[in-house]
Amino acid sequence: MRKVLFPVLLFLMLAAHAVAAAADSVAVNIPDETLNYKVMFKWGFINKKAGSAKLSLRRTPQGYTSQLTAASEPWADRIYRLRDTLNGRMEPDGFRPLFYEKIAHEGAEHKHDVVTYDYTHPGVVAADCSRKVFNKGVLKIDERRRMEAEDRAVDMLTSFYFMRSLPFQDMLPGESTSVAIFSGKQKETLTIDYVGIENVEVDGGTYPAYHVTFLFTTKGGRQSSDSMDAWIATGPGRIPLKLEGKLPVGKVRCYFTGKDDASSE
Predict the structure, then answer these.
(1) pLDDT along the chain (265 residues), means of 10
(2) 100: which strand partners?
(3) Residue ranges per domain, the chain?
(4) SS3 state of residue 235
(5) CB of 259 within 8 A of CB of 265?
(6) Of all helices (H) and strands (E), which one includes residue 68?
(7) SS3 for 108?
(8) How far apart are CA 219 and CA 224, in angstroms?
(9) What's residue 127's pLDDT?
């Protein structure tokens, strides 16, 4: 079940720039917003909801905070229970990440990752990263490491602001871009390939969308997770509409289901 729900985290953290204006604009004065998604498991005639996720952005006097929560459905809990929360803080201009935290309850494991960024060295992004893993309440892993990247780095939550900055409307099919991505565990490279504009069906409607693929690699170019496809609305809201990833058995698909009413938040 972890393999069923994990792609939704990647999708929302990498593609969810619905809070932004057009990709070539300056990202300022973005309103508070909460986006909702459902995760579907598809295998033959089976098409069953396996989980849900919620992504929110809030403006503060110091900059921005963002949070992603994801949970498996009750039927899926019996196979693999997942309750994940990701928190992030960013600078008010440019959305440079300052802090990232992942609190994960997955099966019998409880994981806590923290990444704190350091921009004191020109041209270099450094981060102090820690990772703790508990299994059935017993501490199994307690690691700390220092990571560095040139020019720019993101994490699994704030990377969607990097995605937002890409001028898809000016890109040609086959173009790609890469960025370093930090976690409490390791440094990876995220490569985003632009496929082109396609129509995508979501909840009975058909919408034009930018089709992109995501690929994660570690040192030496080794692929560290399966690639995924995402479709992002071409409108000024840039809402990520759909994700699709392959599983050993079947596929996982993530669909946008709507925004929370701002008056109720």
Answers:
(1) 49 42 40 85 86 88 89 86 91 84 92 95 94 95 95 82 76 90 87 93 89 85 78 81 80 86 50
(2) 88, 115
(3) 2-264
(4) coil
(5) no
(6) strand 63-72
(7) coil
(8) 10
(9) 96
